[in-house]
Amino acid sequence: MNFKIVGGGPAGLYFAYLMKRSHPEYRIRVVEQNPRDATYGFGVVLSGRALSFLAEGDQAAIERLSAKMQTWTEQHIVHRGELMRIDGSGYSAIERLTMLQELQYLCRQTGVELQFNQRVDSIKDNADCDVLVAADGANSIVRDSYPQAFDTRLIDLQNYFAWYGVETPYPAHTLTFVAKDGGTYCAHHYRYTLTRSTFVAEVDADTWLNSGMSVMSDEERKVLIESVFEGILGGKKLISNRSFWRRWRLIKNGRWHHLNIVLIGDAQRTAHPSIGSGTRLAMEDAIALWRAFAAEGTDIAAAFRRYEEDRRPVRDKLNQAGERSIAWYENVAEKMQLAPYEFAYDYMLRTGVMTPQRLAKESPGFIKRYTEATGVAQV
Ligand SMILES: Cc1cc2nc3c(=O)[nH]c(=O)nc-3n(C[C@H](O)[C@H](O)[C@H](O)COP(=O)(O)OP(=O)(O)OC[C@H]3O[C@@H](n4cnc5c(N)ncnc54)[C@H](O)[C@@H]3O)c2cc1C
What are phi and psi of 95, to 5 degrees? Predict the structure, then answer.
């Protein structure tokens, strides 16, 4: 069989590797518009749980990635200058470029053809394969060639964000909330190398308008964010890498396959970064599609159906969690009225996936401090 994969992000590369490893006789190509060493952004974070899901594809591959990761066991939430430690929150982070290069290495080792600097501009480019995997991310040109067949819906969220880096290794996965001049600012920061952290800044729609950010240049917005978060930046400048401010766009598709085309990763569905799992979901899609072909062999239509049937319930559950998290962030100004420990507790339960009982079990230290601070006992 002949597979063409458009997009050399985590979804496309992991699928290509898994498929070629199982079927050395298949032709597997990845067509990527960028050079092999280019990427946007800085580091991505994955929960400990996510890593064990991903190892279901290939344990050795995930161990390879894990060796390059920064890990920590706590999450920190900062509100009104008070730092609250949430124990039992295991996370890892890796530089996006390192992750892609590791996956590229595994692809080359197994014989996947990697074609860089090649942009797919038209769907006509794609009659030359049995299966076309659209792994070309949120702005997928493959998906957008058939918006009705895929029943694609785009939803622009209210908040604005930009993804920066900073030369400071923060000790944990940290969320810092700052109220300033009537606005609410949030930073999501975590180290992904020994010296550098990702720093995602986010503001709600009112702050965007009232602070003047809506009419600023991206450079002016960066300066403003540096001054708002002066306390945690300690004089360091934020580093840009195509760090433009935008609203998050949710993409949903009613159907996941059409003709010989199948959608995976962000091309299929974007996940809000506040549940931190876009990379995980993309790679899990790759695992699910690979498994579907393992079960159905060369019956492409059956493999596509199996992929969608197996994967849709998991995706839907996480998407619901993501949507509740989005609602929390869009109402963050109201949440800022809560006292620090109430705020952190509310944050931890925002998606409905984490229950009070589970939080008490997984984060007893936090719950102890929460009870001391609020006088409210939790079970
Ligand atoms: C601010 C922000 C923070 C994030 N934080 C996290 C996080 O902490 N943890 C996490 O797991 N995820 C995070 N994500 C999400 C994560 O980056 C994506 O969900 C993930 O990269 C999706 O993988 P993918 O392979 O589907 O798509 P992508 O990683 O977007 O890869 C798509 C690839 O396709 C290529 N391509 C696109 N069009 C074409 C074309 N026409 N021809 C050829 N090639 C093409 C692109 O160059 C790209 O390499 C974040 C995203 C953002 C924007």
Answer: -65, 130
Phi, psi of 268, rounded to the nearest 5 degrees: -85, -40
pTM of the model: 0.92
From 76, 85, 77, 80, select the one nearest 339 (Cα to Cα). 80
As a whole number of angstroms, the distance between CA 74 and CA 166 comes to: 20
How far apart (Å, rounded) are the C-alpha atoms in residues 2 and 188?
41
Burial readout 113-146 (b: 16 or more C-beta within 10 A, e: otherwise): ebeeeeebeebebbeebebbbbbbbbebbbbebb
Q: Is 185 helix (H, G, I), strand (E, B) or coil?
A: strand
* CA 10 to ligand 1: nearest atom: 25
Mean pLDDT of 362-367: 96
Q: Are 132 and 6 in contact (CB under 8 A)?
A: yes
Residues 3/133, Cβ–Cβ less than 8 Å: yes
The model's confidence at residue 125, banded by pLDDT at 50, 70 and 90, is: low
Say yes or no to pLDDT of 19 above 80.
yes
Q: Whose CA is nearest to atom 4 of ligand 1?
A: 273
- C-alpha 284 – ligand 1 centre gap (Å): 14
Largest CA distance in the chain: 66
- Looking at ligand 1, which atom is closest to the CA of residue 93? 8
Whether residue 303 has its Cβ less than 6 Å from ligand 1 = no
Nearest Cα to 157, choosing from 78, 46, 273? 273
Residue pair 319/44 in contact (Cβ under 8 Å)? The answer is no
DSSP 62-94: HHHHHTT-EEEEEEEEEETTEEEEEEEEEEEEE
Report angle CA 54, 60, 66 to the nearest 5 degrees. 65
> What DSSP assignment string belongs to 239-295?
B-SS---EEEEEEEES-SEETTEEE-GGGT----GGGT-HHHHHHHHHHHHHHHHHH
pLDDT 10s digits, 277-291? 789 889 999 999 999
- How remote is the CA of residue 269 from the centroid of ligand 1, in Å? 11
Average pLDDT over residues 203-215: 97
Looking at every residue in the chain, the average pLDDT score rounds to: 93
120: left (phi over 0), alpha (psi -120 to 50) or beta: beta
